[in-house]
What we know:
Layout: E1 2-5, E2 7-10, E3 13-17, E4 20-27, E5 32-36, E6 39-42, E7 47-49, H1 52-68, E8 74-81, E9 87-89, E10 97-98, H2 103-111, H3 117-129, E11 169-171, E12 177-179, H4 180-195, H5 201-208, H6 212-222, E13 223-226, E14 233-236
Parallel strand pairs: 4-8, 5-9, 8-10
Antiparallel strand pairs: 1-2, 3-4, 5-6, 6-7, 11-12, 13-14
Amino acid sequence: xxxxxxxxxxxxxxxxxxxxxxxxxxxxxxxxxxxxxxxxxxxxxxxxxxxxxxxxxxxxxxxxxxxxxxxxxxxxxxxxxxxxxxxxxxxxxxxxxxxxxxxxxxxxxxxxxxxxxxxxxxxxxxxxxxxxxxxxxxxxxxxxxxxxxxxxxxxxxxxxxxxxxxxxxxxxxxxxxxxxxxxxxxxxxxxxxxxxxxxxxxxxxxxxxxxxxxxxxxxxxxxxxxxxxxxxxxxxx
Length: 237
């Protein structure tokens, strides 16, 4: 849900009941992280800013939005880490952060909630106030199916006609020699920027010109898997 109250604010999940508007901001980080001076850092030394200021902003704006519309409701906000592999070393704890092992408690509590007529009216008001489109979106969606997915040399940008998947390095006609894994990953990153979303293993195969076993090895190192079976998709780390 996207609301505008002077500024724009986006909400992942909102549950209304028990005299409360519950805000849930969903995070799908995976693997081990450590807490370091207000940031969370993964094993690849990728630094992510503390999510709590983002949550506080969403919380404060929801309180103000409800008050301006004459709705008297308590607001409770939580950051929910849904991935069961996520861990955060060196963290002293915060009731606003819910980890995978605590999810069932949250679900059990929400199952008991039966919204009143007034709370349904609050929900209808919020739905009615939803903004369909964020006006400051500068990224233009590109139709990826009209772009040649073959690997490109990162120097001269020429398309590489074919690759030998048995060789560790690729040599372009411009003379540049590059590690095959590096150029595969570079091409996949460009695809993700174009698509602006998760991708399937078939798409990764198309955009790296590589067989499934090779792509799986690449994704194990550089991507996060979500979903199961035919719903499986990947996000680059």
